[in-house]
Write a structure and sequence with these properties.
two-stranded parallel sheet, mainly alpha, MetI-like fold
């Protein structure tokens, strides 16, 4: 069959215009941000460069370096343990190590500040054990410090590294490790000189996602007393009402984001590997005695610190509130309702827009046009929510004023109805459905589309009758991930929510700011519970790479159930930046992924 028959039919001008409009809409806040920063004047720049940016940049770099290093060590170590060793509790711990993903960084910070307070439960029990009577006699270092911020953020963000490294380690062939051992390398030498260099792309992806999450954080850094670039932007805008200076700081932060993306891409682009289509996975080593229980304790410690302690503390506080008669208060019910409405709105729009962009990009013949649509539309994932809100506000206010004048409406209707907040959420998380749909489309055999064409179907009819039924698992998974992320989103909600409207994250933030964190414990527990489905989705161990991946030429790949299951597994990895990507590239060259952008639209590892 000729190559022309395999190539997807070009989309019409309406599809192309919609995809270009979506990509342009995501890029609009960046252009508005630069315009606002330039309009603030040179005096602001000189003041920021002299008094604000050096300290904020230094603290941000220190926080990024500490969290990046610690998450790399913890995530890599845990991934190596569960993939290459067999010890008591391994089957449970391999998915339990993902549980900290359900705890947002700001909730972990609030919980640990409360737990480690000088008169809190942990230090109180420790003083009683040591025979001290008061905090004046014995107290631990303050959790509100740079060290505390590094530990707390690392405790809940290491699963990004763990997911990527677990998938990569599980697909490395046994023959390479065996060759290293035959050449005289011990277990540590084989890991350091063979397994770890091969897994460098996955490590770069995981650490890159961790650093972007740190940059996006507002609540944890502010509550732990670390003034980063993000918290500086927030305080400059909200406290000092200086949008121009906030935009200038946001531009400096965008430069830092660009550096992180470039470093991450360099980490992957230098990696080259041969074909790994059919290989025998490395067997797990059975541990016995003290070594086995030591491995169990080492793998369980991150789960305890990142999930068990903060979630248990939240459950205790929430139970006390329920016993006291302050369970589901009207404020909590209203916050949950607003969060659910916001998440549903963003999810519906983002999944639809992601489908449009991915379908249009798949059907276009121009590589540059395809890269422009995919890269532009997915760029919001790399932009911190605070920066996106700063850039979105000027064009949104201008459009809002025009609509109010044209329709004769008072005030700012789009801001009041939450339209701007929904738009920010769609721009922020559009990369998730784009990556999921693109991965699903790449796994649908070409003969199915060829048959539809031969029967006279148009591109829209082919999408509706052939691709959409097979994409249902990918679309469902993407929708779930977007919904959960929006429910946890704090920075954009703080800055763009309508007046007198609280979501669960903003309600918790307000209670913590007032020093009454226990009053928001039930709201925090609801946020943690919402994230559990994502953990169950991502917890599946990667399939064994011993058998080759099916392709369009094998009879098995032509079975509709087999095809329909593939996008579901791929979407979880694509939407989160590639933690399960080695499963998808087992029949290709790992080096093929080196040309993909950091935004999760391709197999990142």
């Amino acid at each position: 069959m000729s190559r022309d028959l395999v190539r997807p039919r070009a989309v019409g001008p309406l599809w192309a215009a919609c995809a270009a409009a979506i990509a342009l809409a995501v890029l609009t806040p960046l252009a508005a941000l630069a315009w606002t920063a330039l309009g603030a004047g040179a005096a602001h720049w000189s003041h920021l460069i002299e008094h604000v940016l050096p300290g904020a940049l230094a603290r941000t770099a220190t926080l990024l370096g500490g969290v990046g290093l610690l998450t790399a060590v913890v995530g890599t170590g845990c991934a190596w343990l569960v993939t290459r060793a067999d010890f008591p509790g391994r089957r449970v711990l391999q998915w339990a190590l993902l549980l900290p993903l359900t705890v947002p960084t700001y909730i972990a910070a609030y919980s640990y500040v409360d737990l480690l307070h000088p008169i809190g439960p942990f230090q109180g029990a420790l003083r009683a054990l040591l025979g001290f009577d008061s905090p004046r006699q014995f107290r631990l270092p303050d959790a509100r410090s740079m060290g505390g911020a590094v530990l707390v953020l690392s405790a809940v963000l290491y699963p990004y590294v763990y997911l990527s490294m677990r998938a990569m380690f599980s697909t490395q062939p046994a023959r390479l490790m065996e060759a290293a051992r035959l050449l005289g390398e011990g277990p540590w030498g084989a890991f350091r000189r063979v397994a770890l260099p091969m897994a460098r792309p996955a490590l770069a992806v995981g650490v890159g996602l961790v650093l972007l999450e740190v940059l996006n954080d507002v609540g944890a850094s502010e509550f732990l007393g670390v003034t980063t670039l993000t918290t500086t932007i927030y305080t400059t805008w909200v406290t000092r009402s200086d949008l121009g200076a906030a935009a200038q700081i946001a531009c400096a932060m965008l430069a830092l984001v660009a550096v992180l993306v470039m470093l991450e891409r360099q980490g992957r682009c230098r990696q080259r590997a041969g074909a790994v289509r059919a290989m025998r996975p490395a067997p797990r080593q059975r541990l016995h005695g003290a070594r086995a229980w030591l491995a169990t304790a080492a793998a369980a410690l991150p789960v305890v610190i990142g999930f068990v302690l903060p979630a248990g503390h939240l459950a205790t506080l929430a139970w006390k509130r329920v016993v006291e008669g302050y369970g589901l208060t009207p404020e909590v019910i209203a916050g949950a309702t607003h969060s659910a409405l916001l998440a549903l709105s963003v999810t519906a729009i983002a999944v639809t827009a992601g489908l449009v962009v991915a379908w249009a990009a798949r059907s276009t013949a121009g590589a540059r046009t395809r890269a422009w649509w995919l890269g532009g539309a997915a760029l919001g994932y790399a932009i911190p929510g605070t920066v996106l809100a700063i850039g979105l506000l000027p064009p949104a206010l201008a459009l809002d004023a025009w609509i109010a004048g044209a329709l004769g409406l008072p005030g700012l209707p789009m801001m009041s109805l939450g339209v701007v907040l929904v738009a920010a959420g769609v721009m922020r998380f559009l990369a998730l459905p784009i990556g999921g749909v693109e991965a699903g489309l790449s796994r649908i055999p070409a003969p199915l589309e060829q048959v539809a064409r031969s029967l006279g179907e148009s591109p829209l009819g082919t999408l509706r009758r052939v691709h959409l039924p097979l994409l249902r698992p990918a679309l469902t998974t993407s929708a779930l991930l977007v919904f959960i992320d929006v429910m946890k989103e704090l920075p954009a909600s703080l800055l763009l929510r309508p007046a007198n409207v609280e979501t669960l994250p903003t309600l918790l933030y307000a209670e913590a700011a007032r020093g009454s964190y226990e009053h928001g414990a039930l709201a925090a527990l609801l946020i943690v519970a919402v994230g559990l489905p994502a953990v169950l989705l991502l917890s599946r161990e990667p399939a064994s790479p011993a058998s080759p991946a099916p392709n369009a030429d094998t009879p098995r790949a032509r079975r509709t159930p087999q095809v329909s299951r593939a996008p579901q597994a791929a979407c979880a990895s694509e939407a989160r930046g590639g933690p399960e990507a080695p499963r998808a590239v087992s029949a290709t060259r790992v080096s093929d992924a080196s040309s993909t952008p950091f935004i999760p639209t391709k197999e990142a590892t």
